C-alpha cells in the first residue's frame, strides 16, 4: 500500500473551472491596507512560445492580515492571456522581511503532470545576498527568480518552463 496519489494535467478547461478564484483575487477588486506593487511578465514553453492557458497562483502569507477584507487574503490566481502574459498586483506589508520572496508562485500549465513551485524576489531588495531561499539555488540560476523594476515602476518577471532560461523551480517534501 502506498500513500502516493496519481497526478494529471490540468486539462483543456482550467480557465473555466478555476475562474472563481481568479475573480475572487482580481487586481481590480483588491482591498488592502498596504501599499501595492505589480509584477507582470510572460510564461513561455520550451520552444519559447508563450503559453496561453497557464494558471499562475501567488501566495503571500505576510499580506493576509492587510487583505482581511478579501475573499482569499494573500492569494492570487491569474490565467495567462492569449500571448502568455500575466500580471499580479500584490500587497506589500509595511515592513517586508529583507531577503524574502515578494511572493511564492505555483504554475499550472498544459503538459505538466505536476504543478511547479517557485518564488519571485524584487531586484531592489537589499537583503538578496543574505536570502536563505536564494542561497539554495545555484548562483547562475538565481537571476531567474528576480523581478526587474521597469521605468514605469512595474516589476517585470518572465517564467520559462524549459531551456537554458528555465525558471528555478523548487521541490517541497
TrEMBL record:
Keywords: Dioxygenase, Oxidoreductase. GO terms for molecular function: iron ion binding; oxidoreductase activity, acting on single donors with incorporation of molecular oxygen, incorporation of two atoms of oxygen. Transmembrane segments: none annotated. SUPFAM superfamilies: Aromatic compound dioxygenase. It comes from the Bacteria. PANTHER family: DIOXYGENASE, PUTATIVE (AFU_ORTHOLOGUE AFUA_2G02910)-RELATED, PROTOCATECHUATE 3,4-DIOXYGENASE ALPHA CHAIN. This is Protocatechuate 3,4-dioxygenase. It comes from Duganella lactea.
